[in-house]
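Researcher: Next entry in the queue.
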Amino acid sequence: METRLLRNALFIALLSLFCLLQTASPGFAHTGDYLSGDFLSGLTHPIFGWDHVVAMVAVGLWGAVLGRPAIWVLPIVFPLVMALGAALGIVGIRIPFIEAGIALSGAVLGLLIMFLIKAPMAIAAVLVGSFAIFHGHAHGTELPDAANPIAYAFGFVVATGLLHLAGILFGNLMGNEVGKLVVRGGGGVIACVGAAFLFGVA
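Model: Structure for this entry, 202 residues:
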């Protein structure tokens, strides 16, 4: 009972934060023009980039589908490797097809969730880490122009963690058949959003 109350409280907190952030001026992904470089900029940047939102939620959700230890390993692997991608962007190392890689991450992870694919832990970590490189690089190229890159990076990591947590909480519905259908439907929506960005529809 206490665990269920805690989950509900976390879900409400995340939903409240998301609604609060919706009142801020939206930042369009990968332009870099709107960044002030503070904590709030980093916190809101992934929230308003829907290609990032679906992928980061999908990481937590797929971890929940896979179960332990993936439910915690994947949300740790993603930000760690994302930091590496950001570092590559900061020093000016170019990676091709960044936007396509970001969109593909949502499409692929969404399909894995929709079909409840149970990949081995090592393969799941490598796949999630590969996608994290693209997400990190896209934002790392913006960090040098920020007034306070450390605060911005901290905000971005916090937002990433919250989005992963949202996916994990959503994945708790997997306890029954109806919940599994809802999770699979969520995976389908994520895949569609990723595909829309991939093919330039969104």
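Model: The chain has one domain: 43-198.
Researcher: Noted, moving on.
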